[in-house]
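In the laboratory, one determines a bound structure by crystallizing the protein with its ligand and collecting diffraction data. In a computational setting the workflow is compressed into a single prediction: the sequence and the ligand go in, and a structural description comes out. We illustrate the idea with S-adenosylmethionine.
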Amino acid sequence: MDFVTTGDGSKTIFNAQIGENYHSKHGALQESKHVFLKTGLQYYLEKESISKASILEIGFGTGLNFILTADHCLTEDIKLDYCGIEAFPLEKQVIESIGYNEYVSKPLWEQYISNYDSALKQEVQLTEKINLEIAHAKVLAFTSPKMFDVIYFDAFAAIHQPEMWSDETLAHVTSFLNPGGVFVTYAITGNLKRSMKALGFAIEKAPGAPGKREMLRTVKL
Ligand SMILES: C[S@@+](CC[C@H](N)C(=O)[O-])C[C@H]1O[C@@H](n2cnc3c(N)ncnc32)[C@H](O)[C@@H]1O
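The predicted complex, in structure-token form:
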């Protein structure tokens, strides 16, 4: 696992086995904020005019998407239930040394790090309004009695992990999404659009994060 500095100065991890970074080389921080927080969660909250949401993330990794989302929710007084699916959890020490503490409030960061290992075993309450669970499982083995409002789909690219983008995987993860719920991902391809349409989603091309013209946002009908 090597740290790589991306275009906006934030770091990511290079996974040599897969041959890909955990985030965009153009900027890990700006990608996470743009694709998941702004185009996913903020869009959902504005659309529904509510101040609570549950999020299911596919590919929890470092937890960058989680901490930026949790920090935003703390500032805006939004209740957040977050579940990240991760087949190969990173060691806490790796996450501690990546420098993401700079991007969120100190108490939130400390709560995240001190509860990371527990969150891998069960749901933990980080603050009065923020709950986190990291489901240590391969995506197709994931089950939950819960339904979610927003899906952050942050798998490695289809060229490296095509099985993550298969109809079977997409059908499985979207079965946990409420009607009216939002599915976002950094990528957009013809295959992905066709699969999501066939699953009963309204498709929308949204502006991509720096380095990508477009990304996909879909809403469950
Ligand atoms: C692009 S990275 C996600 C980056 C992450 N969201 C972050 O902010 O650090 C993809 C993640 O998917 C995980 N992964 C790979 N295969 C998986 C599988 N079959 N099921 C669940 N997670 C998987 C990887 O271990 C990696 O953490």
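The radius of gyration is 16 Å. Keep in mind that any predicted model is a hypothesis to be tested, not a measurement.
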